Amino acid sequence: MARPATSEGTVIHTRSLTKDFVVSRTQTVHAVRGVDLDIAPGELVAVLGPNGAGKTTTMRILTTLIPPTAGNATVAGHDVVTEAAQVRRRIGYVGQGNGAGHTQRAGDELYTQALIYGLDRRAARRRSGELLESLDLTELAGRKVSELSGGQRRRLDVAMGLVHAPSLLFLDEPSTGLDPHNRANLWQHIGQMRAAHEMTIVLTTHYLDEADAMAERVIVVDHGQVIADDSPDVLKARLAGDRIALTASPAAVGQLAQLASRLPGARDVVAEGTKVALRVSDGPGALPGLLGTAHGAGIEVVAAQVDRPTLDDVFLALTGRSLRESATPAEPTTPTSRKDAA
Amino acid sequence: MNPRTDPVTAQALPSRPSLRSLSRDTRIVMVRELRPAVRDPFSLVFSLVQPLIFLGLFGPLLAGSLGGTDALGGDVWQWFVPAILVMTTLFGTATTGSNLLFEFQTGAHERMLVTPLSRPSLLIGRALKEVLPLIGQAVLLVTVMIPFGFQLRLLGAVLGLALLGVLGIGLGSLSYAVATAVRQQDWMFWVVHQSVVFPLMILSGMLLPLESGPAWMQAAARANPLAYVVEAERALFAGDLAATAVAWGWLAALATAVVGLLAGVRLMTSSAD
User: Are A104 and B106 inside 8 Å of each other by CB?
Assistant: First the structure.
């Protein structure tokens, strides 16, 4: 049962959430291993992790699709197992696939979705009309879903997830497979909806730049466990830090590295050839002081560069692996889209 | 069937929904399922091609080889047309599970599982929607055959269509049940379909009288609900409403519907695993 005392003030509250899949007599996959989550109303949270990390399984438990093996989860004030029907009424869900049936017309599916959530015919027609309008789909209402482009279909899925104006929206890889333009477009729509309805949004994504730009809070999941949970900026500052690279004459590099390692919080100091590289939590703040110290010691620094870390650096610092290496086939498009989105 | 087992699955089943919300949800699902056919009625006419081929090409052969003998009990069309209606029902509803399989693949089914729709309604609504197209097709086929000498007795025909409807609900439910069971290996659906539909058809005495077959075939036919429905349809369209065959036909169709709905609903409630 739900424990109201501990889930107060949260939209999502889980304790020791666990999911095992028994694949065969000898093999059990521990997809989710003791996840504790507390998500407050209005948060926009991205769940990040490589394939098989347990992101989607966690989301499927929270949306009542599958029951947990152990532990409990309260979503929108109700227990996902014992009060699944209550949870379903209160949440919106946009899954990885296409929610709209391919043989249906776009407008029909949206209208049916509104009826499902208990709107009467007139209200359903009005509501689906509004959503078509705000997601730029009005002209496509009479089109069959199978004839829509990927981006149009995804906007229709989002419209269907919003039809009952849920206070909590789950988005499972909402932008996978979309080109940068359509991704930006989709996020613009989601942002508008969120502002208008004060929604809490929980999303999973493969696109690190997307999580970085959109989410106020990032939950990093690996091997079914939460390994980090904070705002992107804090995660990057605490776990990865900015990378400072300095160029000087080969003779001075050794001394420069020594000075650099005396900076408060400096780590991973590497001296090689004419270059010294290090990580600090605040690169732009640390650089002037470091240059001043170098100048005082008679070292001429000929070039200096500060690189901000990415969430991939965060993941690398946490696990020793790159998120990109363990990515899906859709992932190779990311480097270009990162550039375009930046 | 499903390699994953779960200690708490039983708890996950939604509490028994009220009858009112069940009928509301069932209606929503049924209307949604009917919509593509309403938007594109030609798709229904298209599925009449197969029965028309059998009537046009197999019918004359039947008349030539068995017409005038006792085997068909007088008129060839009175014997053959009711059977073709059962065939249309069989072929029309046995494939319907593939639509659900497609929705498993695209994500449309998952989307509906996250809505408050009651789980049984997702199956019952789909099964009930089978009735309308198959009745429409049967009416068209009968109308086409009247100029060729098919005798229509109205009350019998109406009851015959109702019987087809019940059978269609049963066969449609079973098709959905198979689709749900094999959703992880969707090609299995067509393996099951092919290996079940044709034996059911041949062992029902639809195309040729089973009396001329060996004893084992006749025994197998006695276990085939379709054989009873075919006999009942022939009696009903002949106006013989009180025939024992009619009672057996209803029993067979109702049993198919009950088994189909129970199996389908059971599988549907756990179809997210």
Answer: no
Q: Name the residue among A242, A310, A333 with its Cα closest to residue A48.
A: A310
Residue B171, CA distances (Å) to A229, B133, B167, B218 in order: 51, 14, 6, 22
**Rounded distance between C-alpha atoms, residue B247 and residue B230, angstroms:** 12
pLDDT at A190 over 80: yes
Q: How far apart, in whole angstroms, are the C-alpha atoms of residue B52 and residue B88?
A: 10
Alpha carbon A291 to its chain's center: 37
What radius of gyration do chain A's Cα atoms show? Answer: 24
Q: Over the stretch B166-176, which tens digit does the pLDDT of each residue have?
A: 999 999 999 99
Taking an 8 Å cut-off on Cβ atoms, the answer to whether B15 and A85 are in contact is yes
* Distance from C-alpha of B133 to C-alpha of B122, rounded to nearest angstrom: 19
All residues of chain B having their beta carbon less than 8 Å from the beta carbon of residue A141 are none
pLDDT tens figures, B72-104: 777 889 999 999 999 999 999 999 999 999 999
Query: Measured between CB atoms, does A146 come within 8 Å of chain B?
Result: no
Please state the domain extents for chain A: 4-235, 242-308
For chain B, the structural domain boundaries read 19-269
Which of B11, B108, B272 is closest, CB to CB, to A99? Answer: B108
- A117 interfaces chain B, CB cutoff of 8 Å: yes
Kindly state the average pLDDT of the residues A12-27. 91
CATH 1.10.569.10 fits A242-308, yes or no: no
Residue of A nearest to B38 (CA): A104
% chain A with pLDDT above 70: 92
Q: Which residues in chain A are closer than 8 Å to B129, comparing Cβ atoms?
A: none
Average pLDDT in chain A: 86
Nearest to B6 by CA among A226, A29, A74: A29
Chain A residue with Cα closest to B43:
A103
Chain B hits for A76, CB-CB cut-off 8 Å, are: none
pLDDT > 70: percent of chain B? 93
Superfamily of domain A4-235: P-loop containing nucleotide triphosphate hydrolases (3.40.50.300)
Beta bridge partners of A168: A91, A200
Nearest CB to A100: which of B14, B15, B108?
B108
**Residue among A95, A104, A118 whose CB faces B107 most closely:** A95
Q: Is A23 in Cβ contact with B28 (below 8 Å)?
A: no
Residues 6+ apart with CB under 8 A from A28: A20, A21, A22
